[in-house]
Amino acid sequence: MTTPDDAQSPNAATRAKAALRRDPWDLPDVSGLVVGVLGGTGDQGRGLAYRLAKAGQKVIIGSRAAERAQTAASELGLGIEGAENAECARRSDVVIVAVPWEGHAKTLQALREPLAGKLVIDCVNPLGFDKKGAYALKPEEGSAAEQAAALLPDSRVAAAFHHLSAVLLQDPAIEQIDTDVMVLGESRADTDLVQALAARIPGMRGVFAGRLRNAHQVESLVANLISVNRRYKAHAGLRVTDV
């Protein structure tokens, strides 16, 4: 059992300094993890499920209706399975939340128990749309990721995969997606794991971008990317330079 005195011991201080000196690109092996995708029947969820499975990850698609999830999984192939949301959460080591913003809170509230103890990666973007285009919404908690953390006190929540084009993700003709994934979270072990998952997809790189309190601006940037894509008829992503 660790005591306050232990936390201040020379050994603890040495370990803390060593962690800070660690190569930020020294990431864990995540190849054996089962990844669940809640909202895996939607465009973003299907795309992430397809890319991760194509990279060799075991993937389970979750949906409110098991039959719908199984149909989507069958269409994607690659050993992907489909299940009702709660079963998907229970069977997965890591769960990506890719549901529509309108159903975000309700979905997570219903899955608090099966998501307990799991790493939950939120990639939901709270957006509104009007005749001027897309614009960012700010949840009461500050961001979709912070809402997830509030609703899932027994889970570890990270935020990532916000800026990816669903069109590119789902296109089998595209072998490599050249983009960076901004990763946010409270634990280095968790953000390293998410970065490693992102790196499984050819062309992608996960980049640590801060704690969850910084998630709002990352989620909001999607509104800007939508404007870029509309103007230039593109599927824009992001690259972080000099890292």
Produce the secondary structure layout.
Elements: H1 4-7, H2 10-21, E1 34-38, H3 43-54, E2 58-63, H4 66-76, E3 81-84, H5 85-91, E4 94-97, H6 104-110, E5 119-122, E6 127-130, E7 133-136, H7 144-151, E8 156-159, H8 166-170, E9 179-185, H9 188-199, E10 204-208, H10 215-232
Parallel strand pairs: 1-2, 1-4, 2-3, 4-5, 5-8, 9-10
Antiparallel strand pairs: 6-7, 8-9
Give a concise summary.
Helices cover 40% and strands 19% of the residues. By secondary structure, the protein is of the alpha/beta class.
Question: Explain this structure to me?
Answer:
- 40% of the residues lie in helices and 19% in strands.
- The chain has 243 residues and is of the alpha/beta class.
- An 8-stranded mixed sheet has the order 3-2-1-4-5-8-9-10.
- Helix 3 links the parallel strand 1 and strand 2.
- Helix 6 runs parallel beside helix 7.
- The longest helix has 18 residues.
- The N terminus is likely disordered.
What is the overall number of helices? 10
The computed structural class is: alpha/beta
What distance separates the N and C termini?
38 Å
- Largest sheet geometry: 8 strands, mixed
Spatial ordering of strands, largest sheet: 3-2-1-4-5-8-9-10
- Using the alpha-carbon principal axes, give the shape: globular
